[in-house]
Amino acid sequence: MNKRMVLAADIFKQGGILAYPTEAVFGLGCDPTNEQAIKKLLFIKQRSHEKGLILLASNYSQLKPFIDEQAVSAEQLVQIKSRWPAAITQIMPAKTNTSALLTGGRATIAVRITSHADVVSLCQHTQQAIISTSANISGQHTAKTWQQVTQQFGEQVDYLLKGETLGLTQPSKIIDAISGKVLRE
Questions:
Q1: 123 near 130, Cβ under 8 Å?
Q2: CATH at 146
Q3: What is the pLDDT of residue 172?
Q4: What span, in angstroms and rounded, lies between the C-alpha atoms of 164 and 20?
Q5: Range of 130's domain?
Q6: What sign does the dihedral 102-107-61-120 (CA atoms) show?
Q7: pLDDT range class, residue 1, cuts 50, 70, 90
Q8: Per the structure, how many domains does the chain have?
């Protein structure tokens, strides 16, 4: 058993803020069902609650508690799932009980099934999706290494999962899952 993942999962379940590598940059995250943790994350990042947040998961079932599947046809769902795992974030209809802190007050939520082994392992250890937002104070350069995370956030992050990004040079592509329209290349 991977001790660092067990420790990260324990801190996550206690409402802690984690930093971890993703496909292109380091991310900050927490439990998407813990409102206090989300508020703490937004505070340390100095991010507006109106922007919304991305959820990362190791499999589709971890996203189901947040997605309104009634608003998606079976054919659309097949297409949506076929795009993952990859550095593609999809905007999907959100369940009405999904926190406005996650959706930014919209009727949609941004979700991704990641291919990064550390994040997959973290989601498997927590048995749920994790919030992901770039590891930077809003308006500052995004951290691409764990050392840069430490420089920007110091002790504000409860656990730093040291590792490497997958080396992509741009953040994930964002598409509207229903229409297929690219919102960010």
A1: yes
A2: 3.90.870.10
A3: 84
A4: 9
A5: 3-184
A6: negative
A7: low
A8: 1
In the predicted model, what is the mean pLDDT of the chain?
Answer: 95
Helices (H), the chain: 3-13, 35-45, 74-82, 100-103, 117-126, 146-153
Backbone phi, psi, residue 78, to 5° = -60, -45
**What span, in angstroms and rounded, lies between the C-alpha atoms of 163 and 22?**
9
Instruction: Tell me the CA end-to-end span of the chain in Å, nearest whole number.
Output: 37
Whether omega before 93 lies within 30 degrees of 0, making that bond cis, reads: no
Asked whether the beta carbons of 102 and 53 are under 8 A apart, the reply is: yes
Alpha carbons 111 and 101: distance in angstroms, whole number:
14
Using the Cα atoms of residue 98, residue 122, residue 132 and residue 23 in order, give the sign of their dihedral.
Answer: negative
Which residue, chain included where needed, has tokens 């206090």?
A: 36
Instruction: Say which residue the tokens 């099934």 belong to.
Output: 113
What lies within 8 Å, CB to CB, of 77 at 6+ separation is 69
71: helix, strand or coil: helix
Residue whose structure tokens are 């990042």: 45
Among residues 80, 63, 44, 77, which one has the least CA distance to residue 130? 63
